[in-house]
Amino acid sequence: MTPYETARNLVQLLLKGEQTPPPELIREKVRMALSMLVGQGLAEGVEEEALIRDLETLYSIWMSQGTILEDKQDHIPWLPDRKAEINWDFWDRYRRYLEEEKGWSPATVDRLEQLTDSILERLEEPQRPGDWSRRGMVVGQVQSGKTSNYTGLICKAVDAGYKLIIVLAGLHNSLRSQTQLRLDEGFLGWDSQNNRAFDTGNRFIGAGLIPTGKQLRALPVTSSAEKGDFSKKIADQCGAAPGGADPILMIVKKNKTVLNNLVKWALNWANADPQLGRKVVRNSPLLIIDDEADNASVNTKEVRLDDAGIPREEQDATAINKLIRQLLHSFEKTAYVGYTATPFANIFIHPQVRTSEHGEDLFPRHFIVNLPAPSNYVGPVQVFGLDADSTADLESVTGLNIVRIVEDQDEWMPTGHKKEHVPPYLPTSLKEAIRVFILSCSVRIWRGQTTAHNSMLVHVTRFKAVQEVVSQLVKDELTSLQRRLRYSEGDALKQVLDEFEYLWNTDFIPTSEMIIGTELQPTGLTPSWDDVKPLLYQAAARIQVRKINDDKSKDVLDYWSSLNGLNVIAVGGNKLSRGLTLEGLSVSYYLRASKMYDTLMQMGRWFGYRPGYLDLCRLYTTDELVEWYQHITVASEELRKEFDYMANMSATPEEFGLKVR
Known about the structure:
The chain is of the alpha/beta class.
């Protein structure tokens, strides 16, 4: 932990219990904390005013209530009556981890606690006798913190008595590994990569470093290693058995082979149930979290209806959908919660499809929760703006001045190009974007964010062979800039510095003036050109180029192991387009065209949280893509408005689905 983080955490401890402390109280506690740390030699390099601004921003964040559609049929309310009896060990530790280590404000953590309570209480009590099944969905904005939400839900579900937690995490090893690592940090508390047994000398991480006075035990059958996915052999070696003393955690890919092996493992523990007419696993309440639930999980095959318009018993299904349903159908007590930012496909699932072999489909018949985004979230509305629409009850919003229109891409990366295409050079716009990224990294160094991650996204083609060429061209350009900044003299050095200074004066200064002081970035200082210029080489020298395009690639985004901050230009395609988080993403260069709502929105890795550096962020894209994003933003906002309207009418998810259809 850096001296700055130590100081910030101490101030938050001194402010404990204060939801919205006034500026004078923050200043008083900052001075008190620094005087304590100076005496111990722990405040070196910590600037008082910077810390005050940081904390004022943190405590100004707010989040509204979520809205919920639900069908209470066959549900037995339980959480309010049992809440005082349950030892919330995993949740309490996770809450402290978010406040003490991640720097969340108490108000934000309180809202997370309320939201996860509202989801948990709509699952069944794990001790409820008999067979039961719950289907729900949580809808949140792209990159808005859905992982934190379901990590909190998992902690609470295990505290309440759920014994088996399975998280379905994307289609690629990298996303599955990233999700496992976040659950290692937030729920498990130790590194699953080396050892999967609790008592074999594991390295404690994340929440595991929070002192609780007791050991919190859970058994991970999968690990955060790139190839740490589910294996029946490893599950048997771990001694994993549904219904055992310790809860079991599995993070698995949505892969036919993996899921098929998982179903076989589960059925090994199943017994015949004459009432249900099938083999089921008893006494092991199962919670499945489906991350990116609109991707691969939805059955895209046509639903066959009889003459009365009712789905027939014999229905075909896609492989992943079939296996998820079969897994749920293999347990006596189950809860399925899908998480997505783009729920269009999930709403269109036919709610009445059910087969004897695979059970009911994944329509969220029991509840849909619409998660609010915190006030510091930068989403499609903030980036692209919104035109007023009285019929949809939408107010006009002006977009941030961070989008830069690319107009020189047609010859370099033609629309509809094939995999044989060989781009011969980098366009001027991409060269500019690389320089902007170096400037962004330089300012973050000046602002004291020296160990923060910095990422740039280059997403221009879906073909791996073309990505290979682009990656090399980007690498050559970066190497040239690094060399010129280090070795050039006289006119040669003046030329490259003039290029940076021009961007600084014409782009960075006016943009920072427009953004700093707004709700999204209430505080912050902008350096002068003389402050930034000496830092250019230091910033450029730290940057690496990595090609992120398949599970066989040697390049990985190892943010976790980069303790001094990873500075990276990530060149890729589909692997970067859904679920995978680019830490500290400031500059995006994006040309990929798709007319699918969910695909376009999920490719927007630039949405999310940019604390203290939103003014340094840029999106380079085409005017056509901006128009498409503006259209989709309206469609998404209309859907949310309709959702809120239906929630106020106490409608059910099925009634909402019918209205949308």
